[in-house]
Specification:
This protein has helices at residues 7-27, 32-47, 50-61. By secondary structure, it is an all-alpha fold. It is rod-shaped.
């Protein structure tokens, strides 16, 4: 995301991955194997949002010129 400057798109894609995992988790109330499988969508989606978000925030708050 930093190479192509598409941080927002990366964050949205990972958020959609995590949302799909949560939907699968909530839809499978009596299926423990499906609930376990949904964690493989939830966790990467959730924890992959932080690095591009931190890069985006740090690039937007840093000064452009030296004083």
């Amino acid at each position: 995301s930093d190479k192509y400057h598409k941080r927002g798109l990366t964050i949205i894609l990972f958020a959609l991955l995590s949302t799909a995992g949560f939907c699968l988790f909530l839809a499978s109330a009596n299926h423990p194997h499906t609930r376990y499988a949904s964690l493989f969508l939830i966790l990467p989606g959730t924890y992959s949002i932080a690095p591009p978000l931190a890069a985006w925030i740090s690039n937007n708050t840093s000064p452009d010129q030296l004083l």
